[in-house]
Amino acid sequence: MIRIDNLTIRFGHGQRPVVRDVNLAIDSGTAFGLVGESGCGKSTVLRALSGLNANYDGRIALNGEALDRQRGRPFYRRVQMVFQDPYGSLHPRKTIRSQLQEPLRNQGLDRNAIDVNTVLRSVGLDPGLSYRFPHQLSGGQRQRVAIARALMLNPDVLLLDEPTSALDVSVQAEILNLLQDLRKERGLTYLLVSHDLAVVSHMCSRVAIMEAGEIVEEVDIEALRRGAVEHPYSQRLLRASRMYGRG
């Protein structure tokens, strides 16, 4: 479903690349994790794939078709993104219902083309909440709204940028389980960016490990759980994750 070849990204002409020669292949209907410490470039890869950053070298393809750097409406019918901060990604002065209808308006569709109530129920929310504003919801409810908005156009792909890191620990598992259920029900393909190996281990079947703008290793999730990684950085990241869990 997703193929990235030799992706290189610079912030400014002549600047040193922040992402260098990244190559990924993600099968349809699977969840793929991209992990690494903060600042390693993983969210930058996600932004290039999403069309938020068109200044890159290399090739990005969706279901075998190379993507233009400037994405049009058809792309956003198929690919949607869920951001890290569920409050910052929602408009504070618009009701939940209005924000869920926004993707339909952007596509030139009738605002009732997709039933908002049905989508809200699919993410575990009471449709009555649709007339509230973001500040009237909890963090977990806001992230469920963000997921619902991403589902409004029935996409094939969800790009997940640290989707639980801004939430309370008690809510994180609920959101991860919801995402798992939605992927299986809808046949979605996920690219999940995270610094948390436990989250990736729960969600994904394969993972690429990124250091300083480069992918240093790609393994299946069972190998990651066994600690069967070869690159020194992968080994350090795994040790750090296990030590953090004990703390």
Automatic annotation (TrEMBL):
InterPro entries: AAA+_ATPase (IPR003593), ABC_transp_ATP-bind (IPR050319), ABC_transporter-like_ATP-bd (IPR003439), ABC_transporter-like_CS (IPR017871), P-loop_NTPase (IPR027417). Keywords: ATP-binding, Cell inner membrane, Cell membrane, Membrane, Nucleotide-binding, Plasmid, Translocase, Transport. Gene3D superfamilies: P-loop containing nucleotide triphosphate hydrolases. The keyword ATP-binding applies. It is an enzyme of class 7 (translocase). Its main location: membrane. Its EC number is 7.4.2.10. GO terms for biological process: transmembrane transport. Pfam families: ABC_tran. It catalyses: glutathione(out) + ATP + H2O = glutathione(in) + ADP + phosphate + H(+). GO terms for cellular component: plasma membrane. PANTHER family: GLUTATHIONE IMPORT ATP-BINDING PROTEIN GSIA, TRANSPORT ATP-BINDING PROTEIN. Belongs to the ABC transporter superfamily. Glutathione importer (TC 3.A.1.5.11) family. The complex is composed of two ATP-binding proteins (GsiA), two transmembrane proteins (GsiC and GsiD) and a solute-binding protein (GsiB). This is Glutathione import ATP-binding protein GsiA. It comes from Rhizobium etli (strain ATCC 51251 / DSM 11541 / JCM 21823 / NBRC 15573 / CFN 42). The gene is dppFf.
